[in-house]
Prior knowledge:
The chain is of the alpha/beta class.
Amino acid sequence: MPTENAYIGRQPVLNRNQQLIGYELLFRASKSATDAGHPSELQADTQVLVNTLNDMGTSWLIGSKLAFINVGPAMLTSDFLELLPPRRVILDLSAHILPSNELISRVRHLRALGFGISLDDFTFDAPSASFLDYANYVKLNVQQQDPHHFQMTASRLRSYPVIRIAECVENHEQFHTSRELGMDGFQGYYFAKPETLTAKVIHPTFSNTLALLNLLRQDADIHDIEAILKRDVALSYKLLRYVNSAAAGLNTTITSFSHAVTVLGYHKLYRWLTLLLITASDDAHAPPALQKTAITRGRFMEQMGVTKGLPGERCDDLFIIGMFSLLDVLFDMPMLAILEHLQLSEAAIMALKSGEGPFGRYLQLARACEDNGLASVPELSDALQLDANTLNQCHMGALAWVEELGL
């Protein structure tokens, strides 16, 4: 199966009591990579952002902690940053970033939105010192400064309202010295080397992503947008995971596409899709036959719900259950691990996890209809009070609908 892996490095950031406060997220090109390699700064920044938002998710990567994310000048001025959850993200500015009125104004704006600002490899002689008035965190590299200079910088920073973090701490002596100087936090090999996390990735089709961008640009009706989401498993999965994650800053569970689009808004959705588009891989999207089966299953279950007279939101649930019931195959990982990235209704989770609950039989029946033997179809259709004629109409209607999509 043509799948792709996403990688990201993660190193703990600790407070003075050596308690975890967050992770620095780092670009990694492979599972075995021990450093960022040699990508362009913007390429590395963009890939970490994509992996954090879409391929792995903030909840899985950082839990309830903070994420320190490196940003260069190109990413700093990008609207993509505002897709991140501001209260959970610290933007780590390079010591070499050159100040300008535009960048200083941008940092001030991001700080006002709720983002934290961190100055990496800080010295008072570095260009980044111009951003000190807007910083929440300042990182001092114990490897790049002699002990006297390190002590002088740490002492001088006491007059600023910043959290001082000693980074690149590699042995007990460096930790002891930093602690004696009253540093507020620590990061380095002495505590933990960066671990590389891996996630399976499937990509939405280029054409569907582009079509959605065009509809949003035209301020199209929400039902037209929903129609495209319903024909792309990867796209709909990524959207629901994103909109339900801390990245969207929501306090409610979103279980239908129209609700997700309404809550997220056209502008933010457009930016999110643009990020997907520019990082898409032509050879890593879901296999067409498998995607077609998943969409057919979702439509079939939705039609059964409509026939039964279920409310619209319950029919939405049925569509999503059917569509997402093959995600474990698409991602080549257990369904339980998939569900960790999604916030679905309890009934949907029960159906996907074990085929139980109020929607479990609908999923069992949809699967049974794909089996050439059809052995359990009569029993399941009787349990749902669906006669053979109605069931055939729902199934044939689903097959015809998917064919009309041109998949």
